[in-house]
Amino acid sequence: TEIDWKAYMQEVEGFANGTRDYTQLKGDTGPLVYPAGFVYIFLGLYYATGRGSDIRLAQYLFAGLYLLNLLLVFRIYCRTNKVPPYVFFFMCCASYRIHSIFVLRLFNDPVAMAILFLAINLFLEERWSWGCLFFSLAVSVKMNILLFAPGLLFLLLQRFGLLGCIPKLCICALLQVVLGLPFLLVNPVGYLTRSFDLGRQFQFKWTVNWRLLPEEVFQNRVFHAALLLAHLAGLGLFALHRWHSSKESILTLLKDPAKRKPTSPRLTVNNILWQASCVCPLNASAWIVFILFSSNFLGVCCSRSLHYQFYVWYFHTLPYLLWCTPTTKLAHMPKVLLLGVIELCWNTYPSTVCSSLSLHICHGLILLQLWYGTAPTPVSHIPPPSRKPTAVSKKAQ
């Protein structure tokens, strides 16, 4: 517990003492590599726990965060109405690793994910501006939230068109500037290169997913570039053939929703999506969640390295990814088994060739299910809903 918590407290202590040069904020584990939102949140924990000395109090606070996170996740799942109730038992009680990440190790990953799930709840309520604000706040705690960004961009374009989504993107960018302003005024290059370093190398000894490779391959830049290309290709395929189910070109997303053809209605949570119903039986809330969760999952599958605390990046999304597609009674047990194997892989320390390979196989099976389970099915000609698209509500603006 003390290793990461102590390092976090050392990193924010410099800010508490007046240091505004981001390159000078360091801890026992190395320099601070998280955006500014992390500093403010853990600075609050620094003062709340007697300058980081009361670890027991910090664990109680993170236990409360764990319960809040579950509440936000359950609310999302209730809106989608896709996952059988018994699966929630596994989400609550069957993951030692998740409990450790939240309550024992006190990582910043759970903080970022809890804020992210709050943002998704706001998206489901059509509070897109507030949702973008909290999404950006989550990014400011840890950059892994950017794995959801391609899905969010697609949703914003589908809902508002190019011109309509620009103000939402400005909300995201403005919050990053405001939070980082104390550091940008002193050493802007130092802040940007440290807090948003996309080329950072990871240590081979901590990897969960690539233990099956030799270390020299793991560290090779060509391997990293190949993973990036695979990630971009996966996003492109899902965007073209699974997220965008209209027969029109995907470029129609750039148009004002009011000027699109009636067969491609705007995305609203209060109406059943016509294009979604042609792909798989998801209501509008479930469709939003499917796009966001699959966007993140593609990023996880193509990550250069997954450390043990990164499990929380997608643990709470796995039940949805497994059950959002049509499921027969006989298919429930293999899906539960898949969850169990993934949990076993993440609880194998240190990771082995077998655990790493098993994790990739599980990820591959989930991807195949998402691809084929949401494939367009031949349907007889049914006229699109005659009901005219409703005007954009004020709270959706």
Count structural domains. Answer: 1
Got a strand count?
A: 2
Regions with pLDDT < 50 over 5+ consecutive residues? 263-267, 269-280, 378-390
**Biggest β-sheet strands, sense, barrel:** 2 strands, antiparallel
Report on the architecture of this protein.
The chain has 397 residues and is mostly helical. It has one domain. The protein has 16 helices and two strands. The protein has helices at 2-16, 36-48, 55-80, 87-93, 96-104, 109-124, 128-139, 149-184, 188-195, 215-218, 221-243, 274-277, 284-301, 318-323, 332-346, 353-373, and strands at residues 26-27, 30-31. A two-stranded antiparallel sheet has the order 1-2. α3 (55-80) runs parallel beside α6, α3 crosses α13 (284-301) and α8 crosses α13 (284-301). The longest helix is centred in the middle third of the chain and has 36 residues, at 149-184. The radius of gyration is 22 Å and the shape is globular. The termini are far apart.
